[in-house]
Specification:
- The structure is a single chain.
- By secondary structure, the chain is α+β, with helices and mostly antiparallel strands.
- 24% of the residues lie in helices and 27% in strands.
- The protein is built from five helices and twelve strands.
- The strands form two sheets. Strands 1, 2, 3, 4, 5, 7, 10 and 12 form an eight-stranded antiparallel beta sheet that branches. A four-stranded antiparallel beta sheet has the order 6-11-8-9, with no helix packed on it.
- A hairpin with a 3-residue loop joins strand 8 and strand 9.
- Helix 4 runs antiparallel to helix 5.
- The protein is globular, with a radius of gyration of 20 Å.
């Protein structure tokens, strides 16, 4: 988890050029939110297989969609990063709406970082976390931690649009501004949590259980199950590692 929810990177892109490229898209190119969140829509740029989906890379290799092929400056923006790109999409939030509080906690975020580039925004658009609220200017690029609770409030009359980039890496420290680097797409790879990561997760779970009202008898049973699970996972990882032949064993 990052010390702060949002941190700005020393890169800046031309919002007018980005806005011009986005203007070519029709309403039919935008997909409604999968969970039917009012006022929220997305335009898919990099996805599994290059089709219009929001799947994670555990389903297949990432590819450019035909929509990204129509956007040379957006592609140039993505060239700034020399780490494999995972899902990339434009997110549009309708005016006078608030997105639901979101906190990502699935496996994807053990291996990925998230970036946000405001393209169409206003002073009345605010990003919020539990301890931090900011207004991002258009063309800026921000690193944010999606595993912390966050939400967006658009109190303007107009829609706002942000580019969200997911990158395959554990810590985000490497970036470049070279226009000749050709961005990579995340390949498909069978990959599981390491025993150390499992241990950290189980320790967190046990700490939460210690703060509940379940009986000591029940707690001791669960603690024993957790111990057995960690041992079995370590044994399986020692045998198969990140090899797909161990999928059923995991």
């Amino acid at each position: 988890m990052l010390e702060t929810l949002f941190s700005q990177l020393p890169l800046h892109f031309e919002p007018k050029r980005l806005t011009q490229e986005i203007a070519q898209f029709q309403e039919c190119d935008w997909l409604a939110h999968a969970e039917e969140v009012f006022g929220n829509a997305s335009l898919i740029l990099v996805s599994v297989g290059g089709t219009l989906n929001t799947d994670f890379a555990i389903s297949g290799p990432m590819r450019n969609t035909p929509l990204l092929a129509r956007c040379p400056y957006l592609q140039q923006l993505l060239n700034a990063f020399e780490m494999p790109l995972s899902r990339c999409r434009l997110l549009r939030q309708q005016g006078n709406t608030k997105s639901p509080v979101t906190q990502e906690n699935n496996y994807h975020w053990f291996r990925h970082q998230a970036l946000c580039v405001p393209i169409v925004t206003h002073a009345a658009v605010q990003f919020h976390g539990q301890k931090q609220s900011i207004q991002m200017a258009d063309g800026e690029i921000w690193h944010f931690d999606p595993t912390q609770p966050h939400w967006l409030v658009n109190e303007s009359q107009q829609d706002c649009i942000h580019l969200v980039i997911e990158i395959k890496c554990k810590t985000f420290e490497v970036f470049k501004t070279s226009k000749v680097f050709r961005h990579l797409k995340e390949p498909y790879k069978f990959e599981v949590l390491t025993p150390l990561e499992i241990n950290h997760l189980m320790d967190d779970l046990q700490a939460e259980l210690n703060n509940t009202t379940i009986s000591q008898v029940e707690l001791s049973v669960i603690v024993q199950l957790i111990k057995q699970f960690k041992q079995r996972w370590a044994q399986t990882f020692a045998e198969f590692g990140h090899h797909q032949t161990g999928e059923l064993a995991y």
